[in-house]
What we know:
Elements (H helix, E strand, L loop, with lengths): L1 H11 L10 H7 L3 E5 L4 E6 L1 H7 L3 H7 L4 H4 L1
Antiparallel strand pairs: 1-2
Helix pairs in contact: 3-4
Amino acid sequence: MDQTIMDLSKNLGITFVIVSHELASIYAIADKVIMLDKCAKGIIAEGDSKVLRDISTDPRVHQFFNRITTKDAA
Length: 74
């Protein structure tokens, strides 16, 4: 599926809006990520997924992109 999305985007110039929790797909196909948070009722992060993974200071963003569970964070 990821490859099909990348091919369509490149060859036809199509922009996709995808909702996913699958990090492998996010890293493979996303040019820009917007992370929403229910408690914040809005956007808590936006940008390149690898940059957010590596430098975000927001613990929610860091935990998501590094697959850290609440149990692991304690």
